[in-house]
């Protein structure tokens, strides 16, 4: 369910082929796949994301998927647990976004609060090169 704080995604979108056996849902974190122009769900806690599946997507294996790439601008992320407004976020083992614990990669900052798993919340993407305090 989308956050009550409306965000217009501003990150660039590029097309990638879903190499994951699972459907890629909007807001999931993805990494580069094995093939050129391929992507797959981030499947490791604190795994580095190259992008976020765009809102208008829910693509199965082999389908073209629009992915927000880049940093410093807005997109929606899919919550893996409740988190607060302004929380530093990283990925969980399902490609969802959770609060980054001390020492974990900061890959986004929430622009709203998530009340439950699978909430879609606006966030500013970070590079993942810094860690949570």
What does this structure look like?
- It contains no helices and ten strands.
- It is an all-beta fold and 133 residues long.
- The N and C termini lie far apart (29 Å).
Brief synopsis:
The chain is mainly β. The protein is 0% helix and 34% strand.
Topology:
Blueprint: E1 12-18, E2 29-32, E3 38-41, E4 51-53, E5 64-69, E6 74-78, E7 88-91, E8 97-99, E9 108-110, E10 120-125
Parallel strand pairs: 1-3
Antiparallel strand pairs: 1-5, 2-3, 2-4, 4-5, 6-10, 7-8, 7-9, 9-10
- How many beta strands in the DSSP annotation? 10
Low-pLDDT segments, ≥5 res: none
Terminal-residue CA separation: 29 Å
Tell me the helix content. Answer: under 10%
Query: Major sheet, described briefly?
Result: 5 strands, mixed, barrel
Query: Structural class, from helix and strand content?
Result: mainly beta
Give descriptors for this structure.
133 residues; globular; mainly beta; 34% strand
């Amino acid at each position: 369910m989308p956050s009550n704080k409306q965000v217009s995604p501003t990150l660039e979108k590029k097309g990638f082929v879903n190499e994951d056996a699972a459907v890629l849902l909007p807001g999931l974190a993805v990494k580069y796949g094995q093939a050129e122009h391929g992507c797959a769900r981030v499947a490791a806690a604190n795994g580095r994301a190259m992008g976020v599946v765009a809102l208008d997507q829910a693509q199965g294996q082999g389908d073209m998927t629009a992915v927000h790439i880049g940093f410093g601008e807005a997109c929606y992320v899919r919550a893996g647990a409740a988190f607060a407004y302004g929380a530093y976020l990283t990925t969980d083992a399902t490609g969802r976004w959770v609060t980054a614990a001390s020492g974990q990669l900061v890959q986004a900052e929430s622009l709203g609060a998530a009340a439950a798993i699978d909430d879609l919340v606006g966030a500013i993407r970070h590079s993942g090169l810094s860690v949570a305090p």
